[in-house]
Design brief:
Elements (H helix, E strand, L loop, with lengths): L3 H12 L4 H8 L3 H9 L17 H10 L4 H10 L7 H10 L20 E13 L2 E12 L5 E6 L4 H15 L1 E2 L2 E4 L6 E3 L6 E2 L1 H9 L3 E4 L9 H14 L8 H15 L12 H8 L4 E2 L9 E6 L5 E4 L2 E4 L7 E6 L3 E6 L2 E7 L9 E2 L19 H10 L1 H11 L6 H12 L4 H13 L5 H14 L17 H5 L9 H5 L3 H9 L1
Parallel strand pairs: 1-5, 5-8, 12-16
Antiparallel strand pairs: 1-2, 2-3, 4-9, 6-7, 10-13, 11-12, 13-14, 14-15
Helix pairs in contact: 4-5, 12-13, 12-14, 13-15, 15-16
Length: about 500
């Protein structure tokens, strides 16, 4: 099905005077489909999707084993015994997708270096300092094999959508595309199989056809098939990442863009002396020229407007114009976010820089709404600061709680601060000290300790009474063969001086 962005592009090209045949050849769709889209003025028609035939994978494997791999007999059994009416081509496709059978092993041949034939893509991760902090980033690099031209960008998270955005950005910057793109056996583009037997995800196949190339996976343990790409990463490690500082991920990508498209683009190769800029002028005649109107890839998200008019997206909040609480379809692009209601774009926001969290955004030129969004994440910086100023014992207890796994830090600090407002300082400090002594991190138990301290007023808190006759109980005799628990952690928290004073009293 042709999406809305593609329909808009086709309609704009038709309005600009481009012939139907040229549009059909460019986007690889029939002229009848182009006529229909133009007749609809690029508007998406309302259609109902039909249900697909589903076959249990275990049933398919069992029938495949019973029939010794003869798919024609499997088709007969499905129709006659199971009552599943499925076409034979669909069944063969399901058999291939289930990886039934043994594919034939082949060798990886040597490929000639031809202009316009091949480009290569790969990713790798690095540990770099962003604003002084050690951060993991993923480098994505595109490489034209013949002209040695590169395009480099860094990401915090690299998924299939990020891969599409990177390809679109790199190829639209070049304005041309090679016929093939060599990749490793990554699951971002590969559905199953390896090397020449690899089956590419249909979504990525359609994406590649739009830009005039196809994905090809190299054989396992044959990374030298894209040796130029591997050598480019070595250049990134030994040249780009050395002697540079980065204020943010955006600053790093800006420097990477200048390094790949200007410095390395006009720099002669060390061995051959070839300059990518000059070689690309020759190779561009063999490449596929891309139209400037190609739509950018996007990822659709369904969101619901809260009672204050916001939708949450990637830990930030965006205001939706209007007065109703309706569902919103958010289209995420590489650099912006579009919101649609009933197929009408009601708002568009540029995406904030990487690392921005818990921020509110409203349309440009309009003030922020008066109310804050629902479920807005709040930190506990001010509450923690006031708690630590009460007494050193409170600060010590906070350090212990924050270092404990499984504790929701901000929620606990806010609840602890609320409890401190209900008690006097002396009672609260005594409760916190006792909670730290017995390793208490549950707020409900801490509240019980606080009420107990409150009932004792200024009297010293009694220790727990222990019945010394517990060894004679039947329950103890039944389990006396087990190892005794290690209570040394509680003994270490007891101050010897305090114990001597208590014994003296």
């Amino acid at each position: 099905m042709i999406d809305q962005e593609m329909r808009n592009t086709i309609y704009v090209l038709h309005r600009s005077g481009m012939a139907l045949r040229a549009i059909s050849q460019q986007f690889k769709i029939s002229r009848n489909t182009v006529r229909q889209i133009i007749k609809q003025q690029g508007v998406m028609p309302s259609t109902e999707r039909k249900d697909k035939i589903q076959i249990d994978p275990e049933l398919l494997r069992d029938l495949y084993r019973r029939c010794d791999g003869w798919v024609q007999r499997v088709h007969e059994l499905l129709v006659e015994e199971e009552g599943i009416h499925i076409s034979y081509p669909t069944l063969t496709r399901l058999v291939r997708e289930s990886e039934l059978g043994t594919p034939r092993k082949v060798r990886c041949d040597r490929v000639p270096d031809e202009p316009g034939l091949e480009m290569q893509h790969d990713t790798t991760d690095y540990q770099v300092k962003l604003a002084g902090q050690r951060t993991k980033v993923i480098a994505s690099l595109m490489y034209l094999r013949y002209s040695k031209r590169r395009y480099l960008r860094f990401y915090r998270v690299f998924n299939r959508f990020a891969m599409k955005c990177f390809f679109h950005e790199a190829l639209m910057h070049w304005g041309y595309s090679a016929t093939q793109c060599i990749i490793d056996n990554t699951n971002l583009a590969r559905l199953r199989g390896t090397g020449k037997r690899a089956v590419i995800v249909p979504e990525m196949v359609s994406f590649a056809e739009l830009y005039g190339f196809e994905f090809l996976c190299h054989e396992l343990l044959h990374s030298n098939r894209k040796a130029g790409e591997e050598r480019s990463f070595w250049t990134v490690e030994t040249n780009f990442l050395r002697g540079r500082s980065y204020a943010s991920l955006e600053d790093m990508n800006q420097q990477a863009f200048q390094w790949a498209t200007k410095r390395q683009y006009h720099r002669p190769a060390s061995k051959t002396g070839l300059i990518p800029a000059k070689v690309f002028e020759h190779e561009r005649d063999y490449l596929t020229k891309l139209p400037a109107q190609l739509p950018a890839p996007y990822f659709a998200h369904q969101r619901r407007t809260d009672e204050y008019g916001y939708v949450a997206f990637e830990a930030n909040y965006y205001w939706v114009p209007g007065t109703k609480r309706e569902d919103v379809k958010c289209l995420q692009y590489a650099d912006r976010l579009k919101m649609f209601q009933y197929r009408v774009c009601v708002a568009e926001y540029p995406l904030p820089p990487s690392g921005v969290k818990n921020a509110r955004f409203s349309p440009e030129g309009q003030p922020l709404p008066r109310h804050r969004p629902k479920n807005r994440k709040q930190n506990s910086e001010q509450e923690e600061k006031r708690l630590r100023a009460m007494d050193p014992a409170v600060g010590s207890y906070l350090d212990y709680v924050i270092g404990t796994k499984g504790v929701r830090r901000h929620q606990f600090v806010r609840d602890l601060f609320a409890l401190s407002r209900k008690l006097t300082l002396s009672v609260f400090v005594r409760a916190v000290e006792r909670a730290q002594r017995y390793r208490i991190v549950q707020l409900a138990t801490l509240q019980k300790i606080a009420w107990f301290c409150l009932s004792q007023e200024d009297q010293p808190l009694p220790d727990v009474d222990i019945d010394e006759e517990y060894r004679n109980r039947p329950e103890y005799q039944e389990g006396c063969l087990t190892d005794e628990p290690d209570l040394s952690i509680y003994e270490l928290t007891t101050d010897p001086e305090d114990e001597s004073e208590n014994d003296h009293e």
